[in-house]
Each structure stands twice: as structure tokens, then as C-alpha cells.
Amino acid sequence: MARVIFYTATTLDGYLADESDSLDWLFAVPGGEGGDADFHGFLDGIGVLVQGSATYEWVLRHEGLLDHPERWPTFYGRRPTWVFTSRTLPDVPGADIRFASGPVSAAWPQIRDAAGDLDVWVVGGGDLAGQFADAGLLDEIRVSVAPATLGAGKPLLPRRLGADRLTLTDVRRSGQFAELTYAVRA
Ligand SMILES: NC(=O)c1ccc[n+]([C@@H]2O[C@H](COP(=O)([O-])OP(=O)(O)OC[C@H]3O[C@@H](n4cnc5c(N)ncnc54)[C@H](OP(=O)(O)O)[C@@H]3O)[C@@H](O)[C@H]2O)c1
User: Fold this and answer.
1) C-beta of residue 132 within 8 angstroms of C-beta of residue 4
2) 54 lines ligand 1 (CB under 6 A)
3) Which sequence spans correspond to the domains of the chain?
4) Is 55 in the pocket of ligand 1 (CB under 6 A)?
């Protein structure tokens, strides 16, 4: 049965991006472009990606995908990618993108079936991860904490979750990042 994992980099004060959706603070940290061996090990276990529209549009802009669809991130690969949006957004030719809107629980049977024996990666943003937590579908939160603060921006996880639902299961150092893993109880 697929597990749902919210895996992301975050600032020390709990933001995924600044107010303009910039990740400059992340790319300024050595190793912040990602791609270490542990990340590739994580990806091996992922069958489906899920993201909100701001995250998807950031990837479109950052990679110039509308002009260069071949730049669809190699680490996304051919995995089905669910994009939650209430709008009509452009597709990326060659990528397996499935647009959805409404409660995540309504899309869950299709997401679960597409993942098969592999896990589901909630790429972001934080509210979408919160929607999975609200629905009792979030199994794990894995955050890579960067040595940066922003003071404001797009929140990591705008929900109240306490120790009754979160259990720290792993702590690891990767260069300048502290990686924390929490099991989430439904
Ligand atoms: N630090 C990192 O490693 C990391 C990781 C992931 C993302 N990010 C960045 O963090 C930022 C996240 O942005 P964000 O907080 O705005 O979150 P987001 O989840 O990427 O986008 C939020 C938008 O998705 C749509 N949406 C979400 N749930 C929906 C649902 N159930 N049904 C229909 N539409 C739904 C809504 O927009 P519409 O309906 O208007 O489309 C909503 O405003 C982005 O800049 C992203 O690039 C950073």
C-alpha cells in the first residue's frame, strides 16, 4: 500500500519559498540544488508525485518548460504527476501530468492505484500537504532544514499538528542541511 510522504526543503523559520515564490535562499546554500545520493534513494521508492499549482508553475518557469518540454526534471522522470488546481494550466508534452481539483480524498483512489507498491511524494506546497494530513492520508514528513530564515513566505505546513500525531523517527545531517523525519498518525 502506497505511503504518502511530504518531502521538502524548508527554511529554519518554516517557509518553502519567499512571498514571490523564489527559492534563491535554497540555491544559495551549498548542496541546495539537491540531487545527493540519499535523495536518489528516496526517489527510487516513489511512484507518483503530487503538487499544487504554485509549485507546478514554479517548475514551468524555472525550467522554461513551455518552450523546452524536454527539460521536465529528470528526477521527476516518467512518474505520473498530479497537479491540484482550479484553473486550466498548460500541459508539458511528454510528461504524465494529471490535473485534479477538489478534495484530495476524491483523487486518492487514482493516485494510490497509479503508485502501486511504491510511495507518493507530496512535493508541496504546505497547504496541500496539510490537506492530505486533514484527510488522514499523510504518513510521513521529511524536511531538510536550510541555514536560512525569511521572516515571511509560503508556509511549510499551515496546520496544528501535535505530538499526538507527530513522532520524530530520524535525524540526519547532509552538509549544511539538517534532515528531520516524522511519522504522522492519522
Ligand atoms: N523548498 C522546497 O523544496 C519547495 C518544495 C515545494 C514547493 N516549493 C515552493 O513553495 C511554494 C508553494 O506555494 P503554495 O504554498 O502556494 O502551494 P502550492 O500547493 O504549490 O499551490 C497552491 C495552489 O494550488 C491550488 N490547489 C491546492 N489545493 C487544491 C485543491 N485541493 N483543489 C484545487 N486546487 C488546489 C490552488 O491554486 P489554483 O486553484 O488557483 O490553481 C492553490 O492556491 C512554491 O513557490 C513552490 O515552488 C518549495
Assistant:
1) yes
2) yes
3) 4-156
4) yes
When pLDDT is cut at 50, 70 and 90, the band that residue 36 belongs to is confident
CATH 3.30.465.10 fits 4-156, yes or no: no
**pLDDT confidence of residue 32:** 85
Mutate to test the pocket of ligand 1, among 55, 63, 174 (most ligand atoms within 8 A of CB): 55
Whole-number pLDDT of residue 1: 82
Q: Residue 33: its pLDDT value, please?
A: 81
- How confident is the model over 42-70, as a mean pLDDT? 95
Mean pLDDT across 77-102: 96
- For the CA of 123, the closest atom of ligand 1 is 6
